[in-house]
Amino acid sequence: MGNKKFKIVFADKNNQSVDIDYTLNDTSLAEKWFPKIKHLKNIPIDPIESKQVNLSNLKEIYEQFCKFADIPPIKFETVDQKLCNQLHEIYEKSHGQLSKSKDSSILYKFHHSIHFHEGICKNTNIKVGWGVKEGPLTEKFHCNSYYEDKIIANNMYLPWAELGKTPKAYWEDKEPNDQDRFNALAKPHKTFRAKLFIATEDKNPKPFDVNFVEWFNKYKDNWFAHHNIQKWDNIDEDSAPLLATTDYKHSIKGFKFSKIIL
Known about the structure:
Elements: E1 5-11, E2 17-24, H1 28-40, H2 58-69, H3 81-98, H4 105-118, E3 126-128, E4 139-140, E5 156-157, H5 167-172, H6 179-185, E6 191-192, E7 196-198, H7 210-216, H8 220-227, H9 234-238, E8 242-245, E9 256-261
Antiparallel strand pairs: 1-2, 1-9, 2-8, 3-7, 4-6, 5-7, 5-8
Helix pairs in contact: 2-4, 3-4
């Protein structure tokens, strides 16, 4: 296991090419990830999954989604968390049917735009995904036991990739105080997708807000049983599984992913 080498090619802020060497992490999770990426290395990345499209105009994107879904849009002038929750529920209900449609990219653009306005997509990590092309490589796998104590800049990690929210995000977004809804929407990391992100800065998981802990205590035992897990702490919430490490020490903020060379 481990000791597998590969390169990531970036374009820097001046659009100059920068090659960075990576070494696969020595875990069974990283070993499961590596052959998935071998299948995808020559396939163009998905610009929506990789956050290389403008997600800021939620109203326009939502109207495009409604046209695609053939449903009447709700009217709104301002975007707040209550609206985002409402739109996210519309997305959830539409996903099963519309994801089977040809060229369903607006479905995923709508979803990412909602999270962009919630702040979830605004961090500067370099995200890479292949969208629907990842589909056959997706599997169910409990990933949380592989989470690192902290995120280290320039290293590569596996992103949480569920159709839902983490428990703290559920609470912060003022979703319903309802056990069934919490069980359905809040999820641990059980979906293993052929994705990656490269950290642009160090990150230590923040201690939980005492108000969240008090709220979570009311729902966690049932939620643990529902998802067959034993714990959920700040590392589960704010960290990720390590896929690969690098000795490159310069800042990669503002870099854009170009390709992976295995």
